[in-house]
Amino acid sequence: MEITINIAKDYTTTPGARFKEDGPFSGEAFRETFLEQYFVDPEDNRIVTIILDGTEGYATSFLEESFGGIARKFGKDRCLKKLNFISNEDKLLVEEIKSYIGNANE
Amino acid sequence: MKKLYQTEKWIEYSLKKSESELRRRRKKVLEYERLKRRDEKRKVRVSQAYKNIQKRHGRIEIAPPSNFSLINNIEETGNFFNALNELIDDGKNIFLDLSGVEELSTDALLYILSRLEYNKIRQYKANIFGCAPSNPDCKKIMETSGFLKYVYSQNMSRIESDPDVFSIESGSYVFPQKAAGIKTFIKDKLGKAESQETKSIFKNIIECMANTKHHAYKAHATYSKWWVMGSYIKDSNKVHVTFLDNGYGIPNTIRINFREKVQRMFANVISVGRTDSLLIKSALLGEFRTRTESSYRGKGLPQIYRSAEEGKMSDLIVISRRGYVNSKKAECKELEQVFHGTLLSWNVL
Asked: Which residues of chain A have pLDDT under 50?
């Protein structure tokens, strides 16, 4: 079974910065609310597809905390296997996110 | 039997001890006062050196240079603001006489607001009044900028809105909606469709706001504040964006190595060999300057600089503490006066 998260529809069209205390729609809040639930169970092998289109843009701090943050918590390899990204508006975005996951300090 | 502390010998000893302690403390106080007086004498009064300043009607009237702009006239405008800072510290009645201003840029207006905020943090130690520029163009810039939303004004109660101006917005946190507002303004004015380039406008504003929150106020998070403004310049069909925060500044909030620490100590004493502009440049280039010591942090400034390098923004100027960096001219220079906070200014074509 595949899970789809459309950031623009399910979360916000205006993603914010890194931490919750920075302001609304932070990467930390997104990770905790939308992503972590699919990583808690190590047996959960469902693929999570994230649609990145439809927002105003993504600050590096938002992307790093959301996806680099989850890689730090649950491991790079698991993240890369489990997360699937779709970005038609900005093709470089997926590579950028994968680099944050790859460079995350576990 | 007589108790020890009631004996004549003990009382005499106790008195002598008290007197000696008193003498020691009095000497310490006198020494402290002597050093304080010496420091006061040595202290260079910036406001005394500033020429456009006079005492009149029980207040101190201070006038900025006719070209009142940080990005175009940093030295003179910087001198004005340093004199103003000193007057605020002294808690004077200050009158900002802007009547003689012939050229006004938005960064100077934002910096005035930042200084007013500084006065607020100091419990309104100084009373600050002022007048608008006589020059109609400058007056219009002031009226349409939204500056008057942040001050009390009797004569200029009329706040005009100008479709070519994204009026001053301020905040203490990251407000993505406000960043989206600037992006929409730029897109509308320049007739741009949604693209990577327009998305980078949003990204950069968010990074600026986040930097204010994370780095600008490491000790006083409650005072974190930023101001942002955009204005469309018809002649050259570009939007000028100015972002200012009034924190400790980039050179004071990034990680520096031992050699740089020593260099800074010497520079503070002998006033030469300052490296603030090089530190800013290094932070922009992403040379692992984050104080958090985490390699995944500190990507905000390099992101902004990359946008300038990729042509998504032009004429990026960063001013912080004594550092001035102009990315277009590849210019790094040290300023005579300290700039309190960080100013980022750029154009979107």
From this structure: none
Distance CA B200, CA B310 (A): 11
Residues B284, B304 contacting (CB under 8 angstroms): yes
Q: What is the CA radius of gyration of chain B?
A: 25
CA gap B283, B303 in Å, rounded: 11
Contact B137, B98 (CB under 8 A): no
Provide the ipTM.
0.92
* 3-state SS assignment for residue B257: coil
What's the CA gap between B104 and B222, in Å, rounded?
31
Mind giving me the DSSP string for B137-177? Answer: HHHHHHHHTTGGGGS--STT------TTEEEEEEESS--HH
Q: Which residues of A touch B202 (CB under 8 A)?
A: 14, 56-57, 59
Closest chain A residue to the Cα of B171, Cα to Cα = A23
Assess contact for B171 and B209: CB atoms under 8 A: yes
Other residues' Cβ atoms within 10 Å of the Cβ of residue B162: 15
Nearest to A28 by CA among A70, A56, A59: A70
Q: Which of residues 57-76 of A touch B (CB under 8 A)?
A: 57-62, 64, 68, 72
B103-104 and B165-171 as β-strands: parallel, antiparallel, unpaired? unpaired
In 3D space, the residue among B91, B92, B96 whose CA is nearest the CA of residue B80 turns out to be: B96
**Token pair belonging to B173:** 């946190």
8 Å CB contact between B346 and B317: yes
User: Would you call B260 helix, strand, or coil by DSSP?
Assistant: helix
Q: Which amino acid is at B4?
A: L
Both tokens assigned to B177:
């909606």
With a cut of 70, list the residues of chain B below it in pLDDT: 1-2, 40-48, 155-160, 214-222, 255, 258-261, 263-274, 288-298
Structure tokens at B195: 């693209």
Task: Report the C-alpha gap between A68 and A105 in whole angstroms.
Answer: 8
3-state secondary structure B302-346: HHHHHHHHCCCCEEEEEEEEEEEEECCCCEEEEEEEEEEEEEEEE
Measure in Å the smallest separation between the Cα of B33 and chain A Cα atoms: 44
The pLDDT assigned to B154 comes to 73
Strand B59-62 to B53-56 pairing: antiparallel
**Residue whose C-alpha is closest to residue B279's, from B300, B304, B252, B306:** B252
